[in-house]
Write a structure and sequence with these properties.
The complex is a heterotrimer.
Chain A (H helix, E strand, L loop, with lengths): L31 E10 L2 E11 L4 E5 L6 H9 L6 E6 L2 E2 L10 E4 L11 H11 L4 H14 L15 H14 L4 E5 L7 H18 L2 E6 L2 H7 L2 E6 L2 E6 L1 H6 L4 H6 L6 E9 L4 E5 L5 E7 L8 E5 L4 E3 L6 E10 L3 E8 L4 E7 L9 E6 L5 E3 L5 E2 L4
Parallel strand pairs in A: 3-8, 3-9, 6-7, 7-8
Antiparallel strand pairs in A: 1-2, 1-4, 4-5, 9-10, 11-12, 11-14, 12-13, 14-20, 15-19, 16-17, 16-19, 17-18, 20-21
Chain B lengths: L5 H28 L3 H6 L12 H9 L1 H33 L5 H11 L4 H14 L6 H5 L6 H13 L2 H9 L4 H12 L1 H17 L2 H6 L8 H9 L8 H21 L1 H13 L1
Chain C lengths: L22 H21 L2 E4 L2 E5 L3 H8 L1 H32 L4 H12 L5 H12 L5 H8 L14 H13 L1 H13 L2 H9 L4 H12 L1 H16 L3 H6 L11 H10 L4 H27 L5
Antiparallel strand pairs in C: 1-2
Helix pairs in contact in C: 3-7, 3-8, 3-11, 4-8, 8-11, 11-14, 13-14
Classes of the chains: A alpha+beta, B mainly alpha, C mainly alpha.
Chain lengths: ~400, ~280, ~300
């Protein structure tokens, strides 16, 4: 019963003997460790010497633009791509040489990959039948998963008869019945319309809390990443840019790429001149000559071209005590706040925030107050430098 | 909506006239087949009046030979269809989904086969079958048809169009390669199987040249060749009505098949030509 | 345990076993196409008959073909037949498709009628049309007599026999170009027509500026496909006229058939087959190039 090692029977003691002697499958809280993973397609390295580890029960999001290698990484964990060198361990067991079905993972695909000619029930049961799970156990697991995703009434239908959201639920249910150690999600929300995406996001978060299983979720959508993740891995160009909690990533972006990728509206990045000021903190001069006193210690800051990162919420429209002035070019009203695209003297553009009931109109001359203590600095290599602490 | 323009209505009228011209020869043959030979010999105008009879069809059935030919045609057509479906599905899956040395090159070579007309191979093929003493067998009528590259081409395209995610989901579901092929992908190709199957059946049923030279024994004639053998002396024949009954008898089944599977047949024929 | 088999998932060597899926077909392909093709080419350089190869003659068969008045006539006949049928099939097919490309029930019935003859075998088709053409009580003869004319022996007339075969062929084959054009018309994006309506284009303008340019590639493909198909003319003259009268309807394929299976000059027939193959190959290459230039509209 080699195949059965991919499955765990937590509730039913009769099935304990299906489990693999070499590893303790009763451990529901599986870690995932990647050590020195490399992968080439032809001569191009897609992943190069990458290491990371996931804690049990963690919801990890791989975030990055398309082509950054995040999907390849996920597929390597699933066993759908081979690993050229390095090790993958799930729950302490080395799996990188195992076929996908024996790794104890379940995956929800971007296009759901439901088997079109099978009913939803058969879709869910297929993987269990392949490893010889008993009939009544299959029925029980399918029923339980269907109940928890509220798709009981859809079990006898085929994927083609379901809406996008229903298919999504069916795909998740198919993953759940396998009771995997790790769930893998490959951009599962990208095919849903906006409102459904938000709803499903919330449900996924709930699902994670309910199941308490390790989950890896790949997306290019920073909002999904921020809202779902315990930790985020930001990938760019086949490299890890930063690993951290959502607020870590937002407040202390390790690189200018991370700063630019996470946060909406996009962070303002402007080239600056740096000089040391009081208490060893850097003072930056914007292209239009405006001075911004940051909280970044100069000591750690290398010489060379430097960029300041200012989030819109730290650049506010101000009538008095304005540090800088400019002309409003575009005004975007979001309801609870207003984004004003301001052209500084010399042509540099800056997005600033104002109250929801802002009176600014395009063409107006506006003053800006900049919260320099929240500014980030990025050196020539793109590395981020932040206020101490 | 605007009223259709005059030019549009003229065009439709022309097409309707064309449709009538398409049908008239068939109706003519049907009418003749229902007249007794004696009456036709006397005066073909009697088609429009006088008595109709099923005598020609009765003669045909009484002859018995035709049934032998129909049986041969059925054996050959069904055999070829089954063979083509099996070989093309296996090869299509292999070319579309599996890795093996020389896969691309082999596929290109098979595609080149599409450009080889029957005339370029038929003489040597005939010799080969002579040496192997295979002529006048059902196998000899089936075998050449199994080599048609169109089926492989069609099935390869079809397998390629199935999202790879399906295979991957199945791999994660512990399915073996064979299970994936047999339980997941093959059922998804049923529309292509239908198209290819009907097309192959039709081609086999209507095939003329190869059965003409391979099946020289009257017992082994297919229906197509059998009908041809009786019309060789068309000008001298005294059994016009009988001949026509044969034409109807041979044409009707395939027309019924056409009306039943019209969608697939049109798809198949267009697909085979536009490959 | 699977753990002991590390070679499995990692870099499995490109599997020879996988080739087993294509092997059955490849065996048939080699036996039925590759070998006969090569053997046919070899035969064409020999003097062979029913009992085997008599001598290697190099290109003698081909030079003999070039000087054989009957073969040259069959080449001419074939081209003449292609000229009679291909433009007619293409234009009629296009016309039918333009008129019948609509969802109405009557259009679907008419489409069925125009395609129906395509599924008949050549023997049934020729039987039907001999009954139309025969002066002795044929459909045309009866109709002509009713209108006061006299019956014409189409198939026995040197000038009329080939056109008669062409008419038969057009009747038989019109379904294919029609459905190819219909398929192409359905591919023309709807919004092009909507844009044209907003631009106040007349019906005629829409047809000539939008519809026809959009199916240009299909038009070319249909022409080439029909050339390839009609080049292989065989059954109709073999059954209706036996190549006569006076060789007027003898095409290349019939020449190959009769040289091979009536006179049993297999080497000579094989040479003629190679000539035909070369002609068809040129057309097939043209088809491939047109078909693969998909983006170029």
């Amino acid at each position: 019963m080699r195949h059965a090692c991919a499955l765990r029977s937590v509730d039913d003691p009769l099935h304990v003997n299906y489990s693999d002697k070499n590893t303790n499958r009763e451990d529901r809280l599986a870690t995932v460790e990647l050590t020195n993973i490399s992968k080439c397609f032809g001569r191009t390295a897609v992943i190069d010497g990458l290491s990371m580890s996931l804690n049990p029960n963690e919801f990890m999001v791989f975030l990055g633009p398309s082509g950054c290698g995040k999907s390849t990484l996920l597929r390597m964990i699933a066993g759908l791509e081979t690993v050229d060198s390095g090790e993958i361990r799930i729950g302490g067991r080395r799996v990188d040489h195992l076929p996908p079905g024996e790794r104890g993972v379940a995956m929800v695909f971007q296009h759901y990959a439901l088997y079109p000619h099978m009913t939803i029930r058969d879709n869910m049961a297929f993987g269990l039948r392949n490893v010889g799970v008993a009939r009544d156990e299959i029925a029980a697991r399918v029923a339980a998963a269907a109940r928890s995703l509220e798709i009981e009434h859809l079990l006898e239908r085929r994927p083609g008869q379901l809406s996008g959201g229903q298919r999504q639920r069916a795909a998740i249910a198919r993953a759940i019945v396998k009771q995997p150690q790790v769930f893998l999600f490959d951009e599962p929300l990208s095919n849903l319309d906006a409102s459904l995406r938000v709803r499903t996001r919330v449900e996924l978060a709930g699902l994670h809390q309910r199941l308490g299983t390790t989950m890896i979720f790949v997306t290019h959508d920073q909002v999904e990443a921020m809202t779902l993740a315990d930790r985020i891995v930001v990938l760019n160009d086949c490299r890890i840019e930063q690993v951290g909690t959502p607020m870590d990533i937002y407040l202390r972006p390790a690189t200018s790429f991370v700063a630019g990728f996470v946060g909406s509206p996009r962070i303002n990045l402007l080239p600056v001149r740096i000089e040391a000021a009081a208490e060893g903190l850097a003072r930056a001069t914007l292209p239009d000559g405006t001075l911004v006193q940051t909280a970044v210690p100069t000591a750690a800051l290398p010489q060379g071209d430097t960029t300041v990162g200012l989030r819109a919420e730290h650049v506010r429209i101000a009538s008095e005590g304005a540090a800088a002035r400019g002309t409003a070019r575009v005004v975007e009203r979001l309801g609870e706040r207003t984004l004003v695209h301001v052209e500084l003297k010399g042509g540099a553009m800056l997005v600033a925030e104002d109250a929801g009931l802002s009176t600014v109109r395009a063409g107006d001359e506006v003053g800006l107050s900049i919260d320099g203590a929240r500014a980030h600095l990025f050196d020539a290599a793109g590395r981020g430098h932040h206020a101490a602490g | 909506m605007t009223r259709p323009a005059l030019s549009g209505r003229v065009a439709v009228a022309l097409v309707v006239v064309g449709a009538v011209l398409m049908l008239v020869p068939l109706l003519w043959v049907l009418a003749l087949s229902l007249k007794s030979n004696a009456e036709l010999m006397a005066d073909t105008h009697s088609v429009f009046n006088g008595r109709y009879t099923l005598q020609n069809y009765a003669d045909l059935v009484g002859d018995g030979q035709v049934f032998r030919w129909i049986a041969n045609s059925l054996i050959v057509s069904l055999g070829m269809t089954a063979g083509v479906l099996i070989l093309s599905s296996l090869a299509g899956y292999g070319f579309a989904r599996l890795e093996f040395p020389g896969r691309r090159l082999l596929f290109v070579i098979v595609l080149f086969g599409l450009a080889v007309p029957e005339q370029a191979v038929i003489i040597a093929r005939h010799q080969l079958f002579s040496w192997a003493e295979l002529h006048n067998t059902h196998g000899a009528l089936i075998l050449p048809g199994l080599s048609a590259p169109f089926g492989v081409f069609l099935m390869t395209q079809y397998f390629r169009a199935i999202p790879k995610e399906i295979d991957e989901a199945a791999l994660l579901d512990n399915a073996s390669r064979f299970t994936i092929f047999w339980k997941l992908l093959l059922p998804l190709t049923i529309p292509a199987q239908a198209t290819l199957g009907i097309f192959t059946f039709l081609s086999a049923w209507n095939d003329y040249w190869w059965p003409l030279i391979s099946a020289t024994n009257k017992e082994m004639f297919t229906l197509t060749v059998g009908i041809a053998s009786t019309q060789m002396n068309f000008a001298q024949t005294e059994g016009l009505g009988f001949l026509m009954a044969q034409a109807v008898f041979a044409g009707l089944p395939i027309l019924i098949v056409y009306l039943l599977f019209q969608k697939y047949i049109v798809q198949a024929v267009a697909g085979a030509a536009g490959r | 345990m699977a753990i002991d088999a590390p070679a499995r998932a990692r870099r499995r060597p490109a599997g020879w076993a996988n080739a087993l899926f294509v092997l059955p077909y490849l065996i048939v392909f080699v036996a039925m196409i590759v070998v006969p093709l090569a053997m046919g080419m070899w035969l064409s350089t020999t003097k062979s008959d029913l009992f085997g190869v008599e001598a290697q003659v190099g290109f003698a068969n081909f030079t003999r073909l070039a000087r054989d008045p009957i073969f040259l006539e069959t080449v001419w006949n074939t081209f003449y037949f292609v000229l009679l049928t291909v433009p007619a099939l293409t234009l009629i097919g296009l016309g039918l498709a333009l008129v019948l490309n609509r969802p109405a029930r009557w259009a679907s019935v008419l489409r069925t009628i125009f395609f129906v003859s395509t599924v008949l075998s050549v023997t049934v088709v020729t039987l039907v049309w001999q009954l139309v053409f025969t002066p002795d009580g044929g459909l045309i003869a009866v109709a002509a007599e009713a209108l006061g004319g006299s019956p014409v022996a189409f198939l026995n007339d040197q000038d009329l026999a080939m056109p008669a075969i062409a008419v038969t062929t057009i009747w038989w084959c019109i379904g294919l170009p029609m459905v190819l054009f219909l398929a192409a018309l359905q591919q023309v994006p709807r919004d092009l027509y909507e844009a044209a309506r907003l631009d106040n284009a007349s019906r005629w303008k829409t047809l000539t500026r939008i519809t026809l340019p959009s199916i240009r590639r299909t038009f070319l493909l249909v022409v080439i496909i029909e050339i390839i198909l009609q080049f292989q003319l065989f059954g109709q003259p073999q059954l209706m006229t036996r190549g006569g009268p006076n060789n007027a309807t003898r095409p290349i394929v019939l020449f190959i058939y009769e040289t091979g299976w009536r006179q049993w000059e297999l080497g000579y027939a094989a040479a003629a087959a190679q000539v035909l193959f070369a002609m068809i190959l040129i057309a097939a290459m043209a088809q491939y190039f047109v078909a693969s230039r998909k983006d170029d509209r």
